[in-house]
Amino acid sequence: MLELRSISKSFPGIKALDDVSLSFEPGQIHALMGENGAGKSTAMKVITGIYRPDSGEIIWDGKRLRFHGYRDSIAAGIYIVYQEIQVIPDSSIAENIMLDKMITRGPTGIVNWRLINETAARYMEKVGLDLPPTTIMRHLSAAHKQLAQIAKALAANAKALLLDEPTSSLTLHEADNLFAILKELKAAGVTIIFVSHKIEEVMGLCDKVSVLRDGRHVGTRPVSELTKDDLIKMMIGRDCSDEHLGKLDVNRRREMLRAEHIVRREKANDVSFQVFEGEVLGFYGLVGAGRTELARILIGEDRADSGAIFVRGRKAGIRSISDSLYRHKIGYVTENRKEEGLFLKASVETNITITIWRKIINRITRCISPTKQFVAARSMVDALDIKITSLRQMAEDLSGGNQQKVSIAKWLAADCDILILDEPTVGVDVGAKGQIHQLIWELAQKHRKAVILISSDMREIIRVSSRILVFKDQQIVGELTDVDDPGKTYDDTSMAIGRYLA
């Protein structure tokens, strides 16, 4: 059994864990839940020796743990898979999986690449990663990188496996495959700690759930004794609705963005659509369906082989993200906040205001106005309820959900007329998710923005969108209009989406 006894951990200006006691039993899948900033990630890092607790103790197999770092954790059989992708990009999948257990040719010390690739391939097959083991990680999608990280954990033969939002980048099929693997590990007596914001996953997979709120342990309950509403109340102390946010006043006389016959090999197959002022246009589909690939063409990150893009009725030759932002007022919130969305070593203030430096620079001194920068950043932090110790806090020190809010904030600060949000609530708790949904709706309804919402979360896409385009095999296979009509139910819309994907 793995036990936390009266664990406390503080950082400057915040108490991340406050006298937390938890126990995790072998042969169980135990969920750890809570809002962003509740202390989940800190607890995981304390267990694995990345952080040392200020007080309290950790008991593993009846012995007190005294880890000096993550290597000690691995040696003890405790392994963690992070939500944020952590790979060596210029090495192969096999090298990443076998990094800490390289196979050599006897006493020669020469690496046996054949055996390494064969061993890695077995674990890749388990997680459904159907690629050559020699494939370089840099060329993989976020979902495939996540599967590689899970394969690495399986190869470690861990006695305790900690999973932090492991399905955040996975398709439904890939997630189901992972759940089957976890059930096999559970039957083998492995202790599994499962951190997720997806309540349906927890309810369907886990045996127990422990909830943290503001660094304190709220309670531990068998999942069989809880309803979804019970769990939400434990997490945020209030009810949370899945109902649509309301009918949007879409101005179809003012076209904001139009794509005509966009073609890019293996990324977009003759895609055409329009988005209007005051509209939230949903792009729904499974990972790899072509939604993100199309978005990157729209913002100039990738070039189309053929086709045209029109902004406010005029043909736009968008050649870069800078072009899309400063010439056409198009913003893009990437799905990969760690690698593309944030400067992790920079402050919250810098990350939020980087898109408006041109506006707040002194034309004579060429220096950024500290006052204007502070006011702009502070207003975004307050509007999105971003939990920080100060605007000078480094982005890398924030919880995953708060990092996501900062990634959104920088584009809101730029006051873009057209905003593309790619999986904006991945890794965000149920309370913060509701705030972001309301924000998206208000951007369209009150501020008259045109919003493209890319999401693999069907409840999210139906709750927020006024119209939905369904993607499959890099093309649009269906369109659902009047999604925000009060007379339409969630079941009606979800069944219609399902028919297009069948």
For the record, the count of structural domains works out to: 2
**What is the total tally of β strands?**
20
Total helix count? 18
- Within CATH, the superfamily of the largest domain carries the name P-loop containing nucleotide triphosphate hydrolases
Mean pLDDT across every amino acid position: 88
Q: Helix- and strand-based class? A: alpha/beta
Strand order of the largest sheet: 6-7-8-3-9-10
- The percentage helix is 25-40%
Using the alpha-carbon principal axes, give the shape: globular
Radius of gyration: 23 Å
SSE map:
Elements (H helix, E strand, L loop, with lengths): L1 E10 L2 E11 L4 E5 L6 H8 L7 E6 L2 E2 L5 H6 L2 E4 L11 H5 L15 H14 L15 H14 L4 E5 L7 H16 L3 E5 L3 H7 L2 E6 L2 E7 L5 H9 L14 E14 L3 E10 L2 E5 L6 H8 L7 E6 L2 E2 L5 H7 L2 E4 L3 H5 L6 H6 L3 H4 L9 H15 L15 H14 L4 E5 L7 H16 L4 E6 L2 H7 L2 E6 L2 E6 L9 H12 L1
Characterization of this structure:
There is one protein chain. With 502 residues, the protein is an alpha/beta fold. The protein has two domains: 2-236, Rossmann fold (3-Layer(aba) Sandwich); 255-501, Rossmann fold (3-Layer(aba) Sandwich). It has 18 helices and 20 strands. It has helices spanning 40-47, 70-75, 93-97, 113-126, 142-155, 172-187, 199-205, 228-236, 291-298, 321-327, 337-341, 348-353, 357-360, 370-384, 400-413, 430-445, 458-464, 490-501; strands at residues 2-11, 14-24, 29-33, 55-60, 63-64, 78-81, 160-164, 191-195, 208-213, 216-222, 251-264, 268-277, 280-284, 306-311, 314-315, 330-333, 418-422, 450-455, 467-472, 475-480. The strands form four sheets. It has a six-stranded mixed sheet, sandwiched between helices. The protein has a six-stranded mixed sheet with strand order 16-17-18-13-19-20, sandwiched between helices. It is globular, with a radius of gyration of 23 Å. The model has no long low-confidence stretch (mean pLDDT 88).
